[in-house]
Write a structure and sequence with these properties.
heterotrimer, A mainly alpha, B alpha/beta, C alpha+beta, B: alpha/beta, 6-stranded mixed sheet, 4-stranded antiparallel sheet, 13 helices, 10 strands, C: alpha+beta, Immunoglobulin-like, ABC transporter involved in vitamin B12 uptake, BtuC, 2 domains, 3-stranded mixed sheet, 53% helix, disordered N terminus, binds adenosine-5'-triphosphate, binds magnesium ion
Amino acid sequence: MDFSFVIGQSITQALGVTAIIYCLAAMGLNLQFGYTGLLNFGQVAFAAIGAYSIGVIVISFGASLWAAIPIGLLASVALALVLGIPTLRLRADYLAIVTIATSEIIRLMVRSIALRETFGGANGINGKMGQAFHDLNPFHADIELPFLTWTRQDLWVVTVGWSLIAIFTLATWLLVRSPWGRVVKGIREDENAVVSLGKNAYVYKMQALVLGGLLGTVGGIVWAVAKQSVQPDNFVPDVTFFSYTILLLGGAARVFGPIVGAIIFWFLLVFVGEFLNQMIAAGWITFLLPTDVGPIRFILVGLGLMGLMIFRPQGIFGDKRELALDAR
Amino acid sequence: MPANGQRALEAQSALATVPRVPGASKPDPILVASSIVRRFGGLSAVDVDHVEVQRGSITALIGPNGAGKTTFFNLLTGFDAPDEGAWSFNGRSMGRLSPYRVARLGMVRTFQLTKALNRLRVIDNMLLGAKGQRGERLWASLFPFLWRGQEVKNTERADVLLKRFSLDAKRGDFAGSLSGGQRKLLEMARALMSEPELIMLDEPMAGVNPALTQSLLQHIKMIREEGSTVLFVEHDMDMVHDISDWVIVMAQGKIIAEGPPGDVMKNSEVIDAYLGSRHEKALTESGESLTTGEIK
Amino acid sequence: MVNTPKVNPSDYAPDAHYIKAKGKRIRTRIRPRFYVGALLTTIAACLLLVFAPSAAADGTAIVGTLKGPDGAALTNVSLTVVAEGFTETVSTGADGAFRIEVPKGGKYQLSVDAATLPTGITFSKAEDQNRSILVLMGDKKVLFTFASGTDGGSTTTSSFTWARISQLLVDGLFFGILIALGAVGLNLIFGTTGLTNFSHGELLTLGAFTAIVLNELGLNLIIAAPLAIIISAILWGWGQNKILWKPLRRRKTGLIASMVVTIGLAITIRYILLLFFGGSPRSYQQFAGQSGLEFGPVSITPKSIVFAVLAAIAIAATVIWLQRSRIGKATRAVSDNPALASATGIDVERVISVVWILGAGLAAFAGIYLGSTQDVTWNMGQRLLLVMFAAVTLGGLGTIYGAIVGALVVGMFVQLSTLIIPTEMKTVGALFLMIIILLVRPQGILGRRERVG
Ligand SMILES: Nc1ncnc2c1ncn2[C@@H]1O[C@H](COP(=O)(O)OP(=O)(O)OP(=O)(O)O)[C@@H](O)[C@H]1O
Ligand SMILES: [Mg+2]
């Protein structure tokens, strides 16, 4: 059994493209759920919009990546408006139901045979959709540190990805410490109280939904550019719930929560997976098949999500003082 | 009758000539409502023909449980929509306005069930009340220099109010850690942060410890002295008697009596509707012997 | 007189039990000791099942028949079975059938070599190509569904014939009844506890799997089904409330947090099932391949008639129970106003227990119904969850009649919509309908607006 391989894989993944994508999605959820109290169960829809905008516009229509990115962001805003208009005046549950439903609507539509010409059906869209971005790659060689190996391409994506995260984190920090942040936090606590003080809660909720959705869309764009392939079944509701787990792991309503959460989450998930795989391969575990590792990882995520929400919604490094106030 | 303060005298003398009948018109009404009806299924929770509230007065809205007081508040402040009716505030017609607009026009309410924003600090609760904040706009919020100055001024004002309501020691605590009575105080102070012209308090005394009641009464009188109008719902007859310039009585959705507190409490219709004949004696004997417990 | 602050019920639900009823209690026929006994028996049965695979049996085999979407046998397709120290590859015969003898019960990995499929034929479900199979004893039948690559799955026969419309109406009615079974429980739980349960679909799945387990242990479905419903009601309903939700209510966990917890629970349950039972669809041993009876232009299988009638009876019984029985009335009182209900001597926690039992029982029924008319898979309930939510939001969150009406509307809508949209997108139609209704009438068809302040 190759333990250093397991650790290496875990570290590479924890800092890698997937962690970046999920971190962006979780940052969106942090604005929506953590600060504003909006239960968006369809964050994956925003990621799908981003990824498919790139795929469709670059590959199916042959346009430029630099045109596709703003169009994807616009589509994301449109989606947020469509989701928000009917639901943001209603109880929190309605937004949750409508968002998860919409994420499935989108997945089923892009998957459908009827729209295969555009979206590629179950096979999705494959092709060099991120080429324009990779052409700008300033790195000349792959990186091979102990425990950390990235190709030249990955290195470029990871550098830009984490830089984006840094910028968005700064913006989030500015937002939530401002009077705007105070209003959205007030809405999270009690919307009617905020309305009775003359704030248009609906507009603030919409703003949070749009901003959070945009972060998810950026995640989707990173996906398409980095993996050069988008498939409908990459965008199942579980992606949203992984993002929730990440957010809670790092701590909801904490500016650095999603970053901390994404790194720990992917480290643990990859570690457990690879560790079990190695154990099975080495014959140390005989009661499991290699195919059992996938479900086991999901079970851990499910249990983690429940446990965190119940016992430590403020994150593993969270502040006890807030917990004492009834953790919602 | 409390006779303290310039405004109190003004309000009382203005109301002195008003006939003591339901729907009486006032010399200088800040709020006028006509034929307001709200039904829940078969039940007419509110069915008010006409009512006016005198500017600069403290007006009490009383009535038995389920009389429709809170529903009436909800309708007036836009949190609920009436089946029929129209009302105006400061001469401006208010029908179908969203609640946040109502508040911006200067008609601010508190809730019967307190709505402290638990995971916000007390001072942030207060600051949320301030009006016209530049930093509440999404783009401006990213540039602190645009709103810092205003924020400092608001904070000063909030600190003054907190001190007045004896909450200054709790300034940095989460509102969720306050006691029930302190939350009532915070909610009232927060509403005052928006400098309302008309403040509508739904049972401000419920759950407030008797020792605090006196100072709360002073606060409410102070609001009047500062030029605002107060409309409040209360079950505590002592308090109503003590501070109100005018009392409006609701029962089963209708306004059944109006007048200065002394007069209204002698009104036999009110006694019947409000307390049932059993309590007649206690009530007519002046508020003194009545405890809140008996009424509830 | 009682001072009753009226807020939406959910605001009160979490701490409702704090106002413990001291007065008269509503008596029900629940005997905790009976439950404990049943619980232990079931756990024993489950353990038995988990260990059963290791018991070797004679003549154990994986069997199946591969047929194309047009029903033609797929010949010469190569399949491989892999397990610890065992590999075997076979090809399908002229009738499309295959049989792979395996040494003992246990878990096997079955994969189909897609290259050997006739051109133009693809898997309807990609996961069919490679799946792990739990073989207990005897022949383990494996089902495959194929689509023809060009238009598989989107077979819109957009012919507006009356025959087709009446068939779809009947299908829609049956589907609506199925949804109603789930939606009623979902709504009862929402009504009494304020919880929007995103793991309700898993109650269906658990019910279907409980029946599969009993069925594969040798019980005929006619016995296994009612037994599974009872076990599910107790284990997955009462037990879940007892172990998870009651403590959470005591901790005053808020509703939003609880919703996230239901998501975590749903994921956990689904993947536990996937881990233990594998991803391949299963079917009950009885009534599997029934052919339909012809009623004029409409063809219906006898089993769906039986299930639909029983389901309709179960729903009607639930409604009557809510109207007539003491505990039913108490349930309605709690849905209306938990604080008031508990102040008038209703034991809110007891009502909630009963509602979970009932909800899980109805859901298990729905799961078995779904499992026997289609097949039993680890994510069958999840796939129905959104349709149930569509039904519930359509009818109005928290109202029972709303749930039933909503379910029938959604059921019909889903089926009839296939007249114009491709079959693969029929759920999309229902979800769209839900969003449109929310725009027009947010409180649902039969719902009511809630109050502020
Ligand atoms: N959303 C609602 N749905 C149905 N009935 C309602 C609703 N809101 C209020 N009611 C009913 O309207 C009537 C008036 O209620 P309201 O809360 O206005 O009374 P109140 O005068 O404020 O009583 P209290 O002194 O107890 O606060 C009550 O009978 C109540 O049950
Ligand atoms: Mg009231």
